[in-house]
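Thread: 2-OXO-4-methylpentanoic acid complex, take 2
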Amino acid sequence: MSALSFTVQRRQDPASDERRAEILANPGFGVHFTDHMVTATWTKDGGWADGRVSAYGPIQLMPSAAVLHYAQEIFEGMKAYRHADGSVWTFRPEANAARMQRSARRLALPELGEEDFVASLKALVEVDQAWVPEADGSEASLYLRPFMYASEAFLGVRPANVVTYSVIASPAGPYFSGGLKPVTLWISQHYARAGVGGTGSAKCGGNYASSLAGQLEGIENGCDQAVFLDSASQEYIEELGGMNLFFVTKDGQLVTPELTGSILEGITRSSILELAKDEGLEPVERRIPIQEWKDGVASGDILEIFACGTAAVVTPVGELRWEGGTAPAVGGAEGGEVTRSIRSRLLDIQYGRAEDSRGWLTRL
Ligand code: PLP
Ligand code: COI
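Output below.
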């Protein structure tokens, strides 16, 4: 049952057609935002209420708002894709809704029902549909960012009694500007992203804050991204700060780290595990020692490595570096054959160029 309805107050000063066209011609990632946003408020006594679509702009928060002190915040990341006939679709929103509910439980935030979640996306995209890039084969989309935070003005450490849900939208080109150029990864040995019993499997802002020092260390060492290992033994591969990892092996397996509680269960990851069969590969989820990566690229047992996520889609991974060593890239300068094939398979479904046989698309 949907509890929320969204009233619409269109802004008086939307971006001009010229300005919007200028932005859509070169959107970048996460820098430009559409004219409107969604908000709704939850109170302990009244539940979810006051759903609205209004002008995108600064929000009012007391300096004592709990989120600013104790980081009680979660978010989601998804995209709206325009198909050739002009219609606009999103990918597996029920999976994002379910993940947001799991994140909410872990961060002691209220759950938002799947119907309300999907309705909030529809409400925003309906008003801002001119911001969804044209289907010109360029892989541009409208990135949707639902998020929820403790907006109660209170400094006691307890779950907030007042919470705000919001959705903003940002036209997006490729997440990495280098095209399909493989990203170089740094093994972060000093910093963990998440630990046993922590919040690693929730999509909460704190995980991203804790990934930044490792990411910075990687950049200082000439890498694009950091790869995080399990914090207990520092032996097993977990994921990147914002992407899951896959390995294509010589014996026809597509291997990804199994979910241990400290890895985010990516929706791209689970979709690729299903698409593996169409690719003639055996999907495998298991613990992967970092030593296996180093040995596997040297012995030829690992043929390709790629990272995946909503923002980055499927991105080839190149060289691996750590303090005192490197392991060479595999898969070639533009990603291997399997990496490119899985990438196209996924994008073709998302952009309506291939049949959606699994019912993954929802019209917005
Ligand atoms: N891992 C982390 C830490 C992420 O932030 C993301 C991005 O959302 C992913 C993995 C990939 O998840 P998804 O495929 O649902 O975007
Ligand atoms: C996404 O892929 O949607 C993410 O959330 C990754 C990053 C932008 C935080």
